[in-house]
Specification:
12 strands; Alpha-Beta Plaits; homodimer; 2 domains; six-stranded mixed beta sheet; alpha/beta
């Protein structure tokens, strides 16, 4: 299983100006790719701290580190400088990146009539850590950057979600050396009128019986309180082969059986609804 | 200035099942309180890793560490155990926490007719690191937990947003020893038809002139591309006194002046809109 850490650069994430939807999107994608996301770290636009966070992640030796943000043309876009610093490498002008940037400027000039020059700020986006490769950005100007350090591949993508997604899907997915026999399966059981703590025992029994299946409860507090009732989602997941997936179904059936023996509130019978019947494709 | 780190416990955050809106909400609140959020770390429900992340944060000596998640009654709610492990302390039954939990069960019993017992799972929520205090949860069963280690205050709140928010606003805000003379000010300038990289120079000049003001550009990619145009938000922020806030206005005026001298696309004049006129109250 490929292990991954995500590092998100950006004051706007710490200030609460921007919700970190990038980490969420990447988390979903990585699950579908069969990779294991172990940690997400968000840090502000301070060069020393950015470099430190990269070094700390390298010590834990994940197969892949994905960084988001800090690749644009402004003063506070320091991802390349921070990664170079963390790896104790120089920055070098990457000619392929210059080509990508020129191509993008030409495109914008043709499509939108913008008069754009290859300014110093724009050339800054082509200054990458020595030995790095660049990744084409079909949705914006800043190229992605990929550099290997020992056994860890560091991949940097812009923070703008459309650019991050485009680079990930077009350029990065292929670096995940996947087990074609395994897929991510998930099912949800939504239970009303039984509190989470009452469900705890039912779930711990099933967990012991199916150690490769992950079962977790999530109280739906806001939706539920709006209707004045208790609602808990039991989320059952497994990364497994099609044959093993039958265990997931069995676990689901067993949990439902146990819940059916339970009492709800005095005036309401427990309500059970099954969701997410489909397995996720890669 | 009070320094803060947030640690979010929860596989659902890494899997991409749940967007980390808690870190965003807390980030906003901390900015308004005049505190400096330095880092957010998200980690899965693995006891050793949870304890490690807490230990790593303690080494950096922030004034406050806020943890979210892992306080409920189920097997994977391990925040108290992880913090106790990180601090090398025992867990102890907190009688006040038992009181809070009983009070909550009584309330649910009266209001919703639930027949709820003080099960082992529920008592588990009252097992806190030795020396910890507990914080009343008005929106759910799991009490918040607060424990001091050297000069760092570790505050744990549940991951359910309504409970996290309720505990933060009712119980935690008072621990922030604020500078009453400073407030958080922000203004935004939204510019159409000039790309971010063109704006970079205008902004770097203003930044040098007003070192206490933070200016950052955010391309509005998705909104903008939908309309086939370029849109960049210039976000100007400062934590300062009312008198100093005049600098923020000046910086805004100067940036607008510089932008007005710039060319947009060949067929479109740059469009400038000012937003967020209000200062944020504490």
């Amino acid at each position: 299983m490929i292990t991954v850490e995500i590092i998100c650069f950006g004051n706007e994430l710490l200030f609460g100006k921007t919700i970190n939807t990038n980490a969420n999107w990447l988390g979903k994608r990585l699950v579908m790719l069969g990779a294991e996301l172990q940690r997400v770290t968000t840090i502000g636009d301070i060069l020393e701290e950015m470099a430190e966070v990269v070094q700390e992640a390298l010590i834990r030796k994940p197969n892949v580190i994905i960084t988001t943000g800090g690749l644009g043309p402004t003063f506070d876009d320091m991802a390349n400088t921070a990664i170079a610093k963390a790896l104790n490498r120089e920055l070098e002008l990457n000619e392929q990146a210059v080509g990508f940037i020129k191509e993008r400027l030409d495109k914008l000039q043709k499509e939108r009539g913008l008069e754009l020059k290859l300014t110093e700020e724009r050339l800054g986006m082509a200054m990458v850590p020595k030995g790095a490769e660049v990744l084409k950005n079909r949705a914006g100007s800043a190229p992605g950057v990929m550099v290997k350090e020992n056994d860890t591949l560091i991949i940097s993508v812009p923070g703008v979600p459309s650019e991050m997604k485009s680079i990930f899907d077009h350029e990065i997915t292929k670096y995940f050396d996947l087990d074609p026999t395994k897929q991510f399966y998930e099912r949800s059981i939504v239970v009303n009128h039984i509190p989470e703590s009452e469900l705890a025992k039912a779930i711990s029994e099933t967990r012991e019986k199916y150690p490769t299946i992950y079962v977790k409860t999530h109280p739906h507090s806001s939706k539920a309180s709006a209707k004045g009732m208790i609602e808990v989602e039991i989320h059952i997941t497994s990364l497994c082969s099609d044959e093993e997936a039958v265990n997931l179904r069995e676990a689901e059936v067993e949990i439902v059986k146990i819940i059916k023996t339970m009492k709800g509130t005095s005036d309401k019978k427990p309500k059970i609804a099954l969701q997410n019947n489909d397995k996720k494709s890669k």
